[in-house]
Amino acid sequence: MGILQGCTIGFWRQEQHFDDWVPTGFAPNDDFDTVFGRDAFDPNITLLQALELGGGGLNNLARQAVAALLSAAHPDVAYPLTVAQVISMFQAAFDSGVFEPTALQFDEFNNLGCPL
Predict the structure, then answer these.
(1) Residue 2 falls inside a structural domain
(2) d(CA 81, CA 105)
(3) pTM, whole model, 2 decimals?
(4) What are phi and psi of 7, to 5 degrees?
(5) Cβ(49)–Cβ(13) below 8 Å
(6) Backbone phi, psi, residue 93, to 5°
(7) Rounded Cα–Cα distance for residues 57 and 72 (Å)
(8) For the residues 47-51, what does the mean pLDDT come to?
(9) How many domains does the chain fold into?
(10) Of these four, 13, 42, 76, 100, which has the most CB atoms within 10 Å of its CB?
(11) β-strand partners of 46
């Protein structure tokens, strides 16, 4: 598979990188709960709002999951997971109520180095 890559939360949430969202098929204003298939936030938040969340627990999982999703979806990023795997892993963590192991895995992958 070659050298694996991933882009961080900080990369994806910066306005100057919003053009890098385009090839992913996702947009900053997409609804988080719709994309990830779980009613995680009430009121609903966007993917960009998830990237801007502070704190640990579900907020950290959501932040890391969005960065993972965008990295996995971008054609020029050799991310170790597919979009379907990222969504499935988020759903499993959300359903179990155990957020940190998955958030840490996403964080590790998101810090592999961004080619964009």
Answers:
(1) no
(2) 11
(3) 0.97
(4) -110, 140
(5) no
(6) -65, -45
(7) 22
(8) 98
(9) 1
(10) 13
(11) 31
Q: Which domain holds residue 29?
A: 9-110
Residue type (1 letter), 33: D
> Which of 23 and 2 is assigned the larger pLDDT?
23
State yes or no: pLDDT of 111 exceeds 60: yes
- Token pair belonging to 22: 């385009």
Whether 74 and 45 have beta carbons less than 8 Å apart is answered as: no
pLDDT at residue 86 above 80?
A: yes
% of the chain beyond a pLDDT of 70: 99
Please name the amino acid found at residue 11. F
Q: Provide mean pLDDT across the span 22-38.
A: 98
Domain presence at residue 116: no
Q: What DSSP letter does each residue of the chain carry, written as one string?
A: --S--B--HHHHTSGGGGGGGGGGT--TTSBHHHHHTS---SS--BHHHHHT--SSHHHHHHHHHHHHHHHHH-TT---SS-HHHHHHHHHHHHHHT--HHHHHHHHHHHTSB---
Average pLDDT rounded to a whole number, residues 27-32: 98
